[in-house]
Design brief:
single chain; alpha+beta; globular
Length: 571
């Protein structure tokens, strides 16, 4: 039956020169394996500057982790003082007054105790300096907090002879990253897993290499179901890592993995404010897109020292009314009850509600509203009077743009009852976080994903299919646009991408079709998008398209073909 037959259609330019290329193997494909330290070819490998930038982001984030040696050293200056200081702060019950610094300390204690994590507090203004884990609290829900193994080079791992240049190391870690993303075998990764298995004394199936990055040679990995006893034996692990890896420099751990410490000077008194003007409003946001910010009369704000922490500056927060300020909204906890914290039988004292509510939000996210005048969900509003009075606005649809995203943000917080979501992003390193953020959106029926810039990962339709099968049962509309690099020397990579999006799940069950454009002037680059094209901006390449691959049903639907790009308003 014609209507159920899958067609893969390939349109190629009928140019003699290109036919020669099709018939003859390019010269660079028949020579021996090219040195990893060979000159960088931007035409084939993309921008070296962009590649360095991505590596620098990873390095900045993971280099900030504390070393195992520092964390476990009980004799280190400041540990004993921090223990005594912590005891003095937490000795008394919290007052419930969020303007007091001790209240915030009790919030953190309650939050961490729910995860069987003990913590310390210290005050750097008095010369007591430990590693401050405050900047990683957003990652508390990470099930597997990573280790970072720093090596001087990859020499001696698998078949690697090491790299002599910076771009050689970048090229090598990109190859390893693509291999892991495609779940393929690589001797270096296999050797790393074997050595880590011996160092931790567990089977390698419980170890997962998350990523590798340059700046020497760095391996980020997690240990599944890491028991407390294993955490407490970190000193033994560090010694065994030194034995297993000849190029060992040091080992680091996620700041929340073992007894995190928090600098109470991080709480910024300059940010503390009780709002008393009931009629104060301001315009916040970029020119032409400002939104009204209503001063929350009667509310108290508690300040944290966040200025100067991020590479893109302070405009998101300071100075107030800067065009770069983020929009603001309010979520109230004034009606919190014992049932909101998971157990309606537990004792509940109203004065401690702010402590319990903040800890609960950090741990479990926002609690769906009890009063649901506009449907089930989590309610917030740019007007503080709405959460105060129990009159709420509903979010049914969200368009979210990820620009300068900081890696310490683990997940994207969507309302669980969301039905339509559109995500625009540039860096494909966000893929994992984007997919993780969707697993609780069982009501979602429309999803749009738009990648603004070229990435290094192949679009993996199999991962999306598995996610939709397991977590998005109501999804009917799935639109996407991916720009990506592929190896021009591995001709099967494009075929692999197409096959991932050509399964019966895509083509027969959901009738989700794709088109893949491959330009003639930019070797190793391609664009993959769903049909019909649903976005208003279409980015194409200079020159012409040497090949276009589509997955279509042979149903003679002429209207479908003629309206593929009807939504495009800007090229």
């Amino acid at each position: 039956m014609l209507g159920s037959r899958l067609m893969v259609v390939s349109f190629e330019k009928q140019v003699a020169e290109e036919q020669v290329i099709e018939d003859q193997v390019p010269e660079e494909q028949v020579v021996e394996k090219e040195s990893e330290d060979a000159d960088w070819n931007e035409e084939k490998e993309g921008s070296l500057e962009l590649a360095k930038k991505k590596q620098a982001v990873l390095k900045t984030y993971y280099d900030g982790f504390p070393s195992i040696d520092d964390v476990i050293d009980e004799t280190r200056s400041g540990i004993r003082e921090a223990k005594e200081f912590t005891e003095s702060i937490l000795h008394d019950l919290p007052s419930g007054d969020i303007s007091e610094r001790t209240t915030a300390c009790h919030v953190l204690k309650s939050l961490l105790e729910s995860r069987n994590i003990s913590c310390l507090f210290f005050d750097s203004t008095h010369g007591k300096n430990l590693y401050d884990a405050s900047g990683h609290l957003a990652e508390l829900n990470l099930e597997d907090r990573p280790f970072v193994l720093k090596l001087s080079s990859s020499e001696g791992l698998g078949d690697s002879m090491g790299q002599k240049t910076e771009h050689g190391t970048i090229r090598f870690v990109q190859v390893l990253s693509k291999t892991m993303e495609q779940e393929q075998y690589h001797p270096v990764i296999e050797d790393i897993l074997e050595r880590l298995s011996k160092a931790h004394g567990i089977d390698k199936q419980y170890i997962c290499v998350k990523t590798v990055f340059a700046g020497t040679f760095n391996v980020v990995y997690t240990v599944k179901d890491l028991a407390n006893c294993a955490v407490n034996s970190l000193s033994v692990v560090a010694q065994k890592l030194k034995v297993q890896f000849q190029q060992y420099l040091c080992a680091k751990i996620h700041p929340l993995l073992f007894r995190p410490a928090f600098d109470i000077s991080f709480f910024d008194k300059q940010g503390n404010k009780t709002f008393t003007n009931p009629n104060e409003t301001h315009q916040v946001g970029p020119p032409g897109k400002t939104k009204t910010y209503i001063s929350p009369d009667g509310w108290t704000r508690y300040g944290f020292k966040v200025l100067g922490k991020y590479q893109d500056g302070n405009a998101w927060l300071h100075p107030f009314k800067d065009p770069g300020n983020w929009y603001r909204a309010f979520h109230g906890t004034g009606r919190a009850q014992a049932v909101d914290f998971g157990n309606d039988k537990q004792s509940f004292e109203k004065q401690y509600a702010p402590v319990d509510a903040v800890a609960s939000i950090f741990e479990n996210g926002f609690r769906p509203a009890r009063i649901t005048a506009h449907g089930d969900g989590v309610y917030c509003s740019p007007n503080p009077k709405f959460p105060e009075n129990g009159i709420f606005l509903e979010l049914e649809s969200i368009e979210y743009t990820i620009g300068n995203c900081h890696l310490h943000i683990k997940d994207l917080p969507w309302p669980s009852t969301l039905t339509h979501l559109s995500i625009i992003f540039d860096y494909d390193g966000y893929f994992d976080r984007i997919q993780r953020s969707l697993v609780h959106l069982s009501s979602l029926n429309s999803l749009e994903i738009y990648q603004k810039e070229k990435g290094t990962l192949l679009p993996n339709g199999q991962l999306w299919e598995n996610l939709i099968h397991s977590s998005l049962p109501l999804l009917k509309i799935f639109k996407f646009y991916f720009q990506f690099e592929y190896s021009s020397q591995l001709s099967n990579q494009i075929e692999q991408v197409i096959s991932w999006f050509s399964t019966p799940f895509y083509v027969l069950k959901n009738k989700w079709f794709i088109r893949c454009d491959i330009p003639d002037r930019y070797h190793g680059r391609a664009i993959l998008y769903s049909l019909p094209f649903s976005f208003q901006i279409y980015t194409t390449f200079q020159g012409s398209i040497i090949k276009t691959i589509l997955t279509l049903l042979d149903d003679d639907n002429n209207d479908f073909y003629t309206n593929i790009f009807s939504n495009v308003k800007k090229l």
